[in-house]
Amino acid sequence: MEIVDRDWVDLYCWMRNGSVLFRVFRDREYWGLMHEMLRDFWCGSVVPARQVVAAED
After folding, report:
1. Residue range 9-19, pLDDT digits in tens
2. What's the per-residue H, E or C state across the chain?
3. 24-57 pLDDT, tens per residue?
4. 25 Cβ neighbours under 8 A, 6+ residues apart
5. What CA–CA distance (Å, rounded) separates 3 from 13?
6. Alpha-carbon torsion 5, 3, 25, 40, what sign?
7. Torsion-angle region of residue 40: left (phi > 0), alpha (psi -120 to 50) or beta?
């Protein structure tokens, strides 16, 4: 929702016993927290790992 700038999204879940539709609303406070955590993970884990792999080539 943040990427496409939408306030809500419909999430359709299909199961063998039936299906259900959820409307999920945007939560900017939650996204702010997640963005910080994802940035820390990317910079602290993904980037260093990519550098190690690139150095091995």
Report:
1. 999 999 999 99
2. CCCCCCCEEEEEEEECCEEEEEEEECCHHHHHHHHHHHHHHHHHHHHHHHHHHHHHC
3. 999 999 999 999 999 999 999 999 999 999 998 7
4. 7, 8
5. 22
6. negative
7. alpha
Q: Check: CB of residue 13 under 8 Å from CB of residue 20.
A: yes
Supply angle C-alpha 4, 48, 56, rounded to 5.
Answer: 120
Evaluate whether 27 touches 6 at the Cβ level (below 8 Å). no
Structure tokens at 37: 């955590």
User: Residue 12 pairs with which residues in a beta bridge?
Assistant: 21
